[in-house]
Specification:
Elements: H1 2-24, E1 28-30, E2 33-35, H2 38-48, E3 53-55, E4 58-60, E5 62-70, E6 91-93, E7 102-107, E8 113-120, E9 128-133, H3 134-139, E10 147-154
Parallel strand pairs: 5-9, 6-8
Antiparallel strand pairs: 1-2, 3-4, 5-10, 6-9, 7-8, 7-10
Length: 164
C-alpha cells in the first residue's frame, strides 16, 4: 500500500511540475522552428556555456567557441533527427539546439559566415560548440585548419534573413 501511495504521489508531482513548466515557460513555435523564450534560453545558454545577448523581446542564443566539421565517414549515414547526412548541404550538429533551428556561424578569424540548419547532435569533442557539414566549413574557410573560433547565433524565424 505504501508503494502505491508513493507511486501516486510521484506521478501527481510529475504531472503538476509539467503543467507548471508548460504554463511558465511556453515556447512559441513558428514554422516548426522553436523561438527561444527567457526560460528556454537560460538552459540552452548554460549548456552551450557561451556568451549571450538579448535580441528584441526574446533572448536568442549567441555563443562563441571552437567549430569543427564532419564529412566523408558520416556521408550517407542517418543523423540524430533521422535525415540522411549529406556533407554537401548546409547543416550542422549542435548539442542542445532544437532540430530545425537555423543558425549563423561566423569564423572570427576571417569574418566569413554561413547559415546552417541544425539536424544532428554533437560535437562530441570537449571544447567544441558546433560541427559543420563539409560544405559549410568550406564556405567559412575552416577546411585547411580543421577547426576555428566561431560565433554561433540562432536566427529569429520572423527575420528576413531566415531561410525558411
Amino acid at each position: 500500500m505504501r508503494h502505491r501511495n508513493r507511486f501516486f504521489s510521484l506521478t501527481l508531482l510529475s504531472v503538476l511540475t509539467g503543467l507548471i513548466c508548460a504554463i511558465c515557460q511556453p515556447n512559441l513555435t513558428i514554422s516548426g522552428i522553436t523561438k527561444l523564450t527567457d526560460a528556454t534560453f537560460l538552459s540552452i545558454a548554460h549548456a552551450a556555456s557561451g556568451n549571450d545577448r538579448t535580441v528584441g523581446n526574446d533572448l536568442m542564443l549567441v555563443s562563441e567557441g571552437k567549430a569543427s566539421y564532419y564529412a566523408n565517414q558520416f556521408h550517407g549515414r542517418k543523423t540524430a533527427n533521422g535525415e540522411t547526412f549529406n556533407m554537401n548541404e548546409m547543416t550542422a550538429a549542435h548539442r542542445t539546439l532544437p532540430f530545425g533551428t537555423w543558425v549563423r556561424v561566423t569564423n572570427l578569424r576571417n569574418g566569413k559566415d554561413v547559415i546552417v540548419r541544425i539536424n544532428d547532435r554533437g560535437p562530441f569533442i570537449k571544447g567544441r560548440v558546433i560541427d559543420l557539414s563539409k560544405q559549410a566549413a568550406k564556405e567559412i574557410g575552416l577546411m585547411k585548419a580543421g577547426t576555428a573560433n566561431v560565433r554561433v547565433e540562432a536566427i529569429d524565424p520572423s527575420s528576413e534573413e531566415h531561410p525558411g
